[in-house]
Amino acid sequence: MSDCIFCKIVAGEIPSNKVAENEHALAFHDINPEQPVHILVVPKRHFTDVADLSLNDTAAVAQLMNFAAQVATENTNGHFRLQFNTGEQAGQTVFHVHGHILSRHAKEASA
Ligand code: AMP
Predict the structure, then answer these.
(1) Is 15 touching ligand 1 by the criterion CB < 6 Å?
(2) Is 24 a catalytic residue?
(3) Ligand 1 contact, 42 CB (< 6 A)
(4) Which end of the chain is more exposed for a tag (fewer CB within 10 A), N or C?
(5) Cα–ligand 1 centroid distance for 78 (angstroms)
(6) How far is CA 65 from CA 3, 16, 74, 88, 108, in A?
């Protein structure tokens, strides 16, 4: 979608602090982190929210969840929340589906 900020990040038209990427999805650091680890995972295709995604493309749900689990495992100590705000009244401000990976503990660097 031409006026979608996360579509522009996916397209490289707006910079992001990228964490990981695969064929289907992108992970980048939230610009306004609420916890020591705050990463957003987004499918590259535009869906409005997690309901739109889940009702229209179950394969894309599986791909996004698998990607989110990998990103969370690689960037936290294994204790995290994966949150999809859905709808304005639930706090959604960007209407391109995104999961928030939130954790108090980043993965410790291995020696
Ligand atoms: P939500 O309120 O669930 O829609 O979450 C939107 C999130 O996107 C917020 O946590 C914002 O801080 C974050 N955000 C907005 N613009 C950017 C951006 N350009 N780069 C990274 N994160 C962003």
Answers:
(1) no
(2) no
(3) no
(4) C
(5) 23
(6) 25, 21, 14, 23, 23
Q: Whose CA is nearest to atom 16 of ligand 1?
A: 31
The sign of the CA dihedral 61, 64, 40, 106 is positive
Q: Residue 30 has what pLDDT?
A: 98
Which entry of 24, 98, 100, 105 is annotated as an active-site residue?
Answer: 98
Instruction: Please name the residue ranges forming H helices in 11-92.
Output: 50-56, 58-75
0.85 cut: is pTM over it?
yes
- 3-state DSSP helix/strand/coil percent for the chain, to nearest 5? 30, 25, 45
